[in-house]
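Hey, I'm writing a tutorial for new members on how sequence and structure tokens pair up, and I'd like a real worked example in the thread rather than a made-up one. If someone can provide the structure for the chain below, I'll link this post from the tutorial.
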Amino acid sequence: MSVEHPSDRLVDGYARGDTDLPADELWAVEAHLERCADCRGRLAGAAADVPAVTALLTAVRDGLEPALDRSTPAPRRRRRPTAWATPVMGPWLAMVIGVSVVAVLLDRTAGWTRGAPPVLLLAPALPLAGVAAAWSRGLDPAFELTAVTPRAGLSLLLRRTLTVLAVVLPVHLVAGLLTGVALAQWLLPSLALTATALALGSVIGVGRATAALGALWTAAVLAPAAALGRLFLLQPEHLPLWALTLAAATVVTLARRRAYTTPKSLR
């Protein structure tokens, strides 16, 4: 396909800044120059013959060269692991660890759950607090900047969620060993709740999803255990249900991976 280049008259007039050029021709020359390297070369040659342009370029070069000579390369900064954690996650993770320690102490000293291990009641839901802090508009002061970066979305959310789990799960493992709670009995519900928060977060927002699941856990598990001493949804026979929930939530999260860059998931 042939391309029509501007005439020498138009290029020379554009270089001189002629005010007599019609607006449509001026626009056509500028649009052509953006995509044609040859005509930009023609423009540079024409501008070299214009004293005003030459004087301006010389003045700019003379003003910049001393500053460029004095400048030194900026020191290389260490890359902060912002893709894996945010500063606000620290206090929340410390709180989660503190609650886990309290749960162990309650298991040894108090009987408010009437025989239901506090570690078993709290461990599955505690990662939700860390996930909320990892992806929350209200808690992260740099959230607006992070949310518009190319790495934002499900990939960033998963990295930060894995950071939460990497900190919280070993603490709960130790707590379970100290209190005699079976690993699968709290680990599967913990992973299932976390995955459900991510899946539901693609619809109503991660912050709202964690709050809703936390309230549901309190009503369905904590309250009956405190009032009746009964473990709902945490008996060994319920583990296949938790495994199925984990698998379904994982599938939904991956299927809706593009939804984590929309305003709904940022609530």
